Amino acid sequence: MAVNDPIADFLTRIRNAGLAKHETVEIPNSRLKAEMARILKEEGYIEDYTERGSGAEARLIIELKYGPDGRRAITGLRRMSRPGRRVYRKQSDIPRVLDGLGVAILSTSRGILTDHAARRQGIGGEVLCFVY
After folding, report:
1. b vs e for 93-103, b when ≥16 Cβ sit within 10 Å of the residue's Cβ?
2. Could you give the CA distance from residue 132 to residue 108 in angstroms, rounded to a whole number?
3. For all residues of the chain together, what is the average pLDDT?
4. Taking a C-beta distance cutoff of 8 angstroms, is the pair 105, 114 a contact?
5. CB 36 within 8 A of CB 14
6. Which residues pair with 28 in a beta bridge?
7. What is the pLDDT of residue 100?
8. What does the pLDDT average to over 99-113?
9. Torsion 66-117-8-96 (CA) sign
């Protein structure tokens, strides 16, 4: 089945797997999704991710992270820029997620970055999503 918005599909699969308390979630892979998974791992929202297969059969396996009491590390995922309404921000206008407790993922001219890294590098870009 063709997906019109692969990033929204990526976020929805992670959200649904977390709500169902799954250990892992399997997602069709792309470079963009792999970079977003790398950021989620670096920021401590997921345990790990692995890429499996190649071409049309490529899959991204994400190991979700839970606290000792069973609470999800990712409490919220929100898609910002969509195919029908792109959201671009200058470096000075990059939004802060939950006053710095969450992270915004941006697509910039220097690759996929967090809001913190984009501010530090002095660049803006397309605000893909918020994670908190």
Report:
1. ebeebeeeebb
2. 21
3. 95
4. yes
5. no
6. 59
7. 85
8. 95
9. positive
